[in-house]
Amino acid sequence: MADSAILPDGGHPNPSTHPHREMSTMTYSVIDEAPYGKFHRKLVLLSSGGPFLDGYILGNIGVVIVGIQNQLHLTSTELGIVGAAALIGLFIGGLGFGRLTDVIGRKLMYTVDLAALLVGSILCLFVQEGWQLIALRLILGIAIGADYPIATAMLSEWLPRKERGRCMGLLMAWWFIGASAAYIVGYLFVQALGDDAWRWVLASAAVPALLIMIARHGTPESPRWLISNGHREQARVNIASALGREPSERELDLLAEQETPTGMNFWSSFKKPYGKRTLFVTLFWTFQIIPLFALYTFGPTILAAFDMSEDSVLGSLLISLVFLIGLVPAIKLIDRVGRRPLIIWSFALMIIPLTVLGLAPYAAAPIVIACFCLYALFSGGPSILEWAYPTELFPTEIRGTAVGIATSASRIGAAVGTYLLPIGLDHLGLGTTMLLGAGITFAGLIVCIAWAPETKGRSLQESSGLGKLKPRAVDSAAY
Length: 479
Fold this sequence. Notes:
The chain is mainly alpha-helical and 479 residues long. It is 71% helix and 2% strand. The longest helix has 32 residues, at 396-427.
């Protein structure tokens, strides 16, 4: 028998005293126990489009930041704002559209947000002044921030429980694929066009945005959201279409019991028991991406500070690829050793290379590259859990809201870090800046040791603390 859900403070929720819903023991739903098939693989790929564009759009600015500064004559302060603008947009998009996707559903926003990415990317071709670029990066960030809660909620609510950790981890893999693609495309454009390449590099994101938007058309709405909003028959149709068989009345009854509306709203994310969960997800995500986003946005600038300016773009591409490689063992381990050991050990190991860089800022180039690669490798665990944890720790009614809140808060921290990084390099020096990154990572380790829960193998109802399991599954013979 599977264990009941565990709260971030290590305790087990008591259904009889739960402030929102009383539930007896329950069985796994038709979605939880569905065989992983063609529909799931397609949905994973389509949902990965958002992370791909996120990595691509946040990564391409770093490749051409020198050309932008030269042509638009930006000060170091303006340069920091350009780097941080998309992250500020992520705050707005996650906070606003996270709640909206819980209210109106996942399906509509699943496509609409990509239209904004498409238009915003094309308009980068016509930028003439710094404020125009800042405005467009802000708009692109809003659209990216919107896709986080939309795509993650849609995907997690369709996935079988035993595949959820692996598949949510694959979303993060596509973030790094997008970032790597941005460096490759950017490098080729810069080699061909020089400083004039930056407009075309930024506008190139319109191509994958258009393809993904077309491919996402027709994706069925989440049956969990439909059931929780009184659309039982449409949920039946969507389940039958996606999973290849008609759900029984008993299965729909169980899903309806699990997704019974309780009137939770935006503020429920800050109330017991979800307040601590919101704080945990927000803090570990923030402490993870402040150094990571700074390294990505200003990777070439940092490597140039290590006297590697001639190879800065290629060096950044190598680091980006190692970030991607680091996800492979993390994806394999997330459902094997569990979420809690994975995130704690990852944070602990990430501190080491940043500390070395801080204590030896003038080390030889191979040591610098090795440290950056080790950091990228060890960051795989927290990176995939940025996507898995928020979707697992909150119920359907506030899942998009909670993911949006965590996305927004973490991106504000990342925006501050990205804005301050070039200023820190100028005024504090390279070694001190790297040591600050190690200190921020250490704070993330403390948060994870204190609050990281274990949700391995649990249904969304269990992991969100809404009930306990019986030792059998519903109509398992039907499969």
